[in-house]
Specification:
The complex is a heterotrimer of chains A (101), B (108) and C (541).
Chain A lengths: L7 H32 L4 H25 L3 H29 L1
Helix pairs in contact in A: 1-2, 1-3, 2-3
Chain B lengths: L1 H22 L2 H8 L9 H22 L2 H25 L17
Helix pairs in contact in B: 1-3, 1-4, 3-4
Chain C lengths: L4 H30 L2 H8 L13 H12 L6 E7 L7 E9 L6 E10 L4 E3 L6 H12 L7 H23 L16 H15 L1 H14 L1 H4 L8 H12 L18 H14 L6 E7 L7 E6 L12 E4 L5 E4 L5 H14 L5 H36 L3 H29 L11 H22 L12 H24 L3 H6 L3 H44 L1
Antiparallel strand pairs in C: 1-2, 1-5, 2-3, 3-4, 5-6, 6-7, 7-8
The chains are: A mainly alpha (101), B mainly alpha (108), C alpha+beta (541).
């Protein structure tokens, strides 16, 4: 259940954690977007454009969700995990494409 | 010159449109018509007029510029129009009686 | 973490709004001024006060200047010409290798040319609008490791969060859409104005913050140059076969063909495609080589769709190598979004509406700060906390202090002589120091004169800075007259709007500041009269 924030340091820590977690998640999203779109035939810079545009909106939404979620630490873990997974997949796609050419 | 007149017309229709939308709200209807006027605002008619005003404004903007610029001009014109109506309601609410002539306060 | 969605959104809106509101005020204020950046440049550089001219002949006028700027043709990397349709002076940029000071390095030299006479202006004139206020609004001119750009981008994202959270916590979004009640007490009217400027201009605020961050997004998420750099290289290798643009010198010398003829050909092609226009930008590479490359781009028109129609020529033969392809869907969307922010168009009604939106953003942030202070001032006074003093002082610093700094740089610009004594710093450095020094003074004054807030009273700093603004604005206009002879009667009768417009704006600022100062003073006097009579009643009772 939700517990009220007590100390200032705890708040600061939560904010930093939220920012880092959302950055990682957004990075993963954009990386996967670029790699996936490029693999599907989109021109590289167009893939970057599109993935970045959506990425900023993803950051905004995920950031608001992080604070609205019942447990901020758990939300951060989900975001970092998801981000790492997406980034990993992007690197995998990159490796496969390099090998193919 | 033609472009300037069309843009002025676009701004005028967007002010009128915002004015009608404001009047469709009870609080502003009472502000403009005074408490002497008993009947509630003809909401549906005012909202329809408001939408018509805003739509006409968009058409006028599109007749002057390419859609990529006209869309921006329209959105910003609506913003300026809404500010204008808000400040008119604050300081000169009776000016909005121009928008709905039947809306004059009746005695009693 | 929070009891409810609403309380989470309230917390985000309040605290991120408070901390980053100070940065956002700067971004919105200087961003709004940048709508008129070229006009401000003309006020600051009297030599530039003439009507915009078409691009002069490259072969006869510009080529000799470039040859003078770069040490030799072998070491030149890029020559650039920028003649957008709002600047009167034309920018000539030469990037070349030089070993002038011992070791070899790349140098960038910029000169401004008067197209009417072909003369290059000497001196280190400071384009206060496009070279100071512009980078100030997106980077606070804090260039160490791009820190300033990161701070502003983060603030921009938090602006988006503040807009969304603001909508969530605003209970009467539609009912109070047109509501502003200045008679209902300071707290209510401040909140009304905050809500009005935030909601009515919401599309503007959202799109400007979003597109602002989007423009530099490659710096914040440099995925294509780090994690997916290999993929980027793969793409370049696949592309090389398709592009006809040379990427290096051939080694065979060949003189530059007529660039004027290339410009005429570019204009002919644009007109043939139904998008007639003037030449805006020219890039030249490998000049003097058989692989010389000349790229010609159009000056902006009133559309956000034809910005990518560059025509590429072989510099030695004058033949067309390729024309930039028409943008695809993604490029059109990206071009629209960045163009909406960067405003390469000449549509003056829209530009003025943009300035209005920017000012609305400033009012939204300022009223937010004022509401925060008003709401907590009495609480903090009872608790003996100094925190509210700090917040109010920072509010004064960012609202009136920022205007004072802006006026300071304009005044110093007019006071500095054309040629400075030997050993003095350059014009641009001096004017920059003046700006920051004026702001620092304003901040010191703000902290000194907001002490009463900690006792729940009103700070005299606000009134005093309002009067300072009035005096400084009028001084700036007078100095313009004294130092250039361009007084309002002359600039209005000649209808030279860049200078007349800025002078009129300065006088308007003076009037608004004076009115605001008087109103605040009256309110403070009323409040202290009431407090006195309450104390007298209590003493009598």
């Amino acid at each position: 259940m939700a517990a009220r924030i007590s100390s200032r340091q705890q708040i600061a820590l939560h904010v930093v954690a939220a920012l880092v977690a959302n950055y990682v998640f957004t990075w993963g999203f954009i990386a996967l977007g670029v790699a996936g779109l490029f693999a599907a035939g989109t021109e590289f810079h167009d893939a970057e454009s599109l993935a970045s545009m959506l990425g900023l909106l993803v950051f905004l939404t995920a950031f608001l969700w992080t604070f609205a979620a019942r447990s901020l630490p758990r939300a951060c873990l989900v975001l970092v995990g998801g981000g790492a997974l997406m980034a990993g997949t992007a690197s995998l796609i990159q490796a496969l494409l390099i090998r193919a050419y | 010159m033609r472009d300037a007149l069309l843009l002025i017309a676009a701004f005028v229709t967007s002010i009128a449109g915002m004015g009608w939308l404001a009047l469709s709200m009870d609080v502003h209807w009472r502000q403009v018509c005074g408490n002497a006027f008993g009947s509630p605002a003809p909401t549906k008619r005012l909202r329809a007029l408001g939408t018509l005003g805003l739509g006409t404004s968009l058409v006028l903007c599109l007749s002057v510029n390419h859609a990529s610029i006209a869309s921006l001009v329209w959105v910003m014109a609506l913003t300026a129009a809404a500010f204008s109506i808000a400040f008119i309601l604050t300081w000169r609410a009776h000016w909005l009686r121009l928008l709905f002539p039947p809306a004059r306060p009746t005695a009693g | 973490m929070f009891q409810s969605f609403r309380s989470a959104m309230t917390w985000i809106h309040t605290w991120f709004g408070l901390v980053l509101g100070f940065v956002l005020m700067g971004a919105f204020f200087f961003g709004a001024l940048c709508v008129f950046d070229r006009e401000i440049d003309k006020w600051a550089i009297p030599e530039a006060r003439f009507e915009v001219q078409p691009m002069p002949s490259f072969d006869r006028v510009l080529l000799p200047e470039f040859e003078a700027m770069s040490p030799s043709l072998e070491t030149m990397q890029i020559w650039g010409i920028v003649a957008d349709n709002r600047s009167s002076l034309i920018d000539l940029v030469s990037i070349h290798e030089t070993s002038a000071q011992g070791d070899a390095r790349t140098e960038r030299v910029v000169k401004m040319l008067d197209p009417r006479t072909g003369k290059v202006t000497n001196g280190d004139h400071f384009k206060i609008g496009s070279e100071f206020f512009y980078p100030l609004h997106y980077s606070l001119t804090l260039d160490w490791q791009g820190l300033g750009e990161w701070i502003v981008a983060f603030s921009g994202m938090m602006m988006l969060a503040a807009l969304i959270s603001g909508i969530v916590i605003h209970r009467k979004l539609f009912r109070e859409f047109f509501t502003f009640r200045p008679g209902k007490g300071f707290r209510r009217s401040t909140l009304d104005l905050h809500n009005l400027t935030g909601v009515v201009a919401l599309p503007f605020h959202f799109f400007f913050a979003f597109t602002g961050v989007l423009i530099f997004v490659g710096q914040y998420f440099p995925i294509g140059t780090t994690q997916l750099a290999q993929l980027h290289e793969l793409h370049e290798q696949l592309e090389i076969g398709e592009s006809k643009i040379p990427t290096e010198r051939s080694g065979h010398a060949a003189p530059l063909a007529s660039v004027d003829a290339m410009m005429a050909e570019a204009r002919r092609r644009w007109a043939a495609h139904g998008m007639p226009g003037e030449v805006g930008v020219i890039h030249l590479r490998f000049v003097g080589d058989a692989n010389a490359h000349v790229a010609i781009y159009p000056a902006a028109t009133n559309s956000l769709q034809d910005l990518l129609n560059g025509v590429h020529f072989n510099g030695a033969t004058g033949a067309v190598l390729q024309v930039d392809p028409a943008p695809n869907a993604v490029q059109q969307v990206a071009g629209f979004l960045t163009g909406l922010h960067l405003q390469p168009f000449r549509h003056w009604p829209l530009r003025w509406l943009y300035a209005l939106g920017g000012l609305a953003g400033c009012v939204c942030i300022a009223t937010g700060l004022l509401f925060f202070v008003e709401k907590r001032k009495h609480q903090h006074a009872k608790q003996g906390s100094q925190a509210i003093h700090v917040v109010d002082a920072l509010a004064v610093t960012t609202v009136t202090g920022m205007v004072i700094a802006t006026l300071g740089i304009l005044i110093v610009n007019r006071l500095l002589p054309d040629t400075l004594p030997a050993g003095w710093p350059r014009h641009d450095d001096l004017e920059r120091y003046a700006f920051w020094f004026a702001w620092l003074l304003a901040m010191a004054h703000a902290f000194w004169r907001t002490a009463p807030v900690a006792q729940g009273r009103m700070a005299p700093a606000w009134v005093e800075q309002c009067w300072t603004i009035t005096v400084m604005s009028v001084t700036a206009v007078l100095l313009n007259w004294i130092t250039t002879g361009d007084h309002l009667l002359r600039t209005l009768s000649d209808t030279y709007w860049p200078v007349a417009g800025l002078d009129l704006a300065l006088l308007t600022v003076a009037a608004i500041a004076a009115l605001a100062g008087r109103k605040i003073k009256r309110r403070a006097e009323n409040a202290s009269m009431i407090a006195e009579s309450v104390a007298q009643d209590a003493a009598r009772a």
